């Protein structure tokens, strides 16, 4: 099961949603892989902290190494699993991001390597029960690669008017990609994030999305400083604060999504 978390708008919680759902999956005993395709590396920093650049050369790290070898000699290529790192959490693994992804993008595009992530994940099908993919906040080579490789896509939505306009463009882009590259990709749901039940606008926006037929998840995620603390500690909420209100909302969202797969 491969799930990509994507929105073209930044600051909507892609990393928080990716890593916390993945951490719950791992806590449930499922071998779970997080793939960080955002050059900013927020999922990487969240799950493993700062990376020692001397010990792990950027061009050989995680996703960058995986993609880089596709433009080199076939005889020198390694199994995709060799680029995967362990995290401090049991059953939770990571294909980390790297600054080199920016430099690689044009070469990968020119050589039409858009299907290479899908090919790599097919080789890892037997290794991992769940794959969660964090994406950059734009419709570029890496986000397209993720959408081509995934079974489903989750769309974080942070309840403002700009987010709504961005959503329309995003859904058009996903529909075009489905038609051209991945007809089996399912828009699994729109995740309402940073929801403020005390304000009128968020509720109105969500109601309007539902009236327009968008697949809004029934579980909403509230704004909480606990998430920032979780980022700072490099510990997903299910590990750091298992009984916190936001953790319980993530658990409910996870159960909602997994329940649809049965």
Q: What is the compact description of this entry?
A:
By secondary structure, this protein is α/β, with parallel strands linked by helices.
Explain how this protein is built.
The chain is of the alpha/beta class and 262 residues long. Helix 1 (14-27) runs parallel beside helix 2 (42-48), helix 1 crosses helix 11 (245-260) and helix 5 (116-123) packs across helix 6 (141-149). The protein has one domain: 3-Layer(aba) Sandwich (Rossmann fold), CATH 3.40.50. The model has no long low-confidence stretch (mean pLDDT 92). A seven-stranded mixed beta sheet has the order 3-4-2-5-1-6-7, with helices on both faces. The protein is globular. A hairpin with a 5-residue loop joins strand 3 (85-86) and strand 4. The longest helix has 20 residues, at 161-180. The protein contains eleven helices and seven strands.
What is the fold's blueprint, element by element?
Elements: E1 2-5, H1 14-27, E2 32-36, H2 42-48, H3 62-68, E3 85-86, E4 92-95, H4 100-110, H5 116-123, E5 130-134, H6 141-149, E6 152-157, H7 161-180, E7 186-192, H8 200-211, H9 225-233, H10 237-240, H11 245-260
Parallel strand pairs: 1-5, 1-6, 2-4, 2-5, 6-7
Antiparallel strand pairs: 3-4
Helix pairs in contact: 1-2, 1-11, 3-4, 5-6
List its salient traits:
262 residues; alpha/beta; 45% helix
**SSE-based structural type:** alpha/beta
User: Given the C-alpha coordinates, what overall shape results?
Assistant: globular
Q: State the CATH superfamily name.
A: P-loop containing nucleotide triphosphate hydrolases
Total domain modules: 1
Rg of Cα set: 18 Å
Low-confidence stretches: none
Strand order of the largest sheet: 3-4-2-5-1-6-7
The CATH topology, please?
A: Rossmann fold
**β-strand amount:** 5-15%
Count of helical stretches? 11
Main β-sheet: number of strands, strand sense, barrel status?
Answer: 7 strands, mixed
By CATH, the architecture is named: 3-Layer(aba) Sandwich
Helix content, binned percent: 40-55%
C-alpha end-to-end distance: 12 Å
Assign the CATH class: Alpha Beta
Query: What is the average per-residue confidence, as pLDDT, rounded to a whole number?
Result: 92
- Order of secondary-structure elements: EHEHHEEHHEHEHEHHHH
Number of strands: 7
């Amino acid at each position: 099961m491969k799930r990509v978390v994507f929105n073209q708008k930044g600051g909507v919680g892609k990393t928080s949603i990716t890593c916390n759902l993945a951490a719950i999956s791992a806590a449930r005993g499922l071998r779970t892989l997080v793939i960080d395709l955002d050059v900013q590396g927020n999922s990487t920093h969240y799950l493993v902290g700062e990376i020692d650049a001397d010990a792990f050369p950027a061009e050989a790290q995680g996703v960058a190494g995986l993609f880089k070898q596709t433009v080199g000699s076939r005889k020198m290529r390694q199994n995709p699993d060799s680029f995967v790192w362990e995290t401090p959490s049991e059953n939770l693994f990571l294909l980390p991001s790297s600054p080199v992804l920016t430099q690689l993008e044009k070469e990968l595009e020119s050589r039409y390597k858009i299907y290479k992530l899908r090919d790599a994940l097919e080789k890892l099908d037997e290794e991992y029960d769940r794959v969660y993919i964090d994406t950059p906040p734009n419709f570029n080579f890496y986000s397209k690669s993720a959408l081509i490789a995934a079974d489903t896509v989750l769309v974080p939505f942070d309840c403002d008017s700009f987010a709504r306009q961005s959503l329309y463009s995003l859904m058009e882009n996903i529909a075009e990609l489905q038609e051209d590259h991945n007809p089996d990709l399912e828009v699994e749901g729109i995740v309402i994030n940073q929801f403020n039940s005390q304000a009128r606008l968020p509720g109105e926006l969500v109601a309007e999305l539902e009236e327009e037929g968008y697949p809004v998840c029934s579980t909403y995620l509230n704004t909480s400083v606990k998430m920032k603390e979780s980022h700072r500690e490099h510990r997903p909420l299910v590990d750091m604060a298992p009984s916190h209100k936001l953790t319980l909302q993530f658990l409910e969202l996870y159960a909602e999504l997994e329940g649809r797969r049965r």
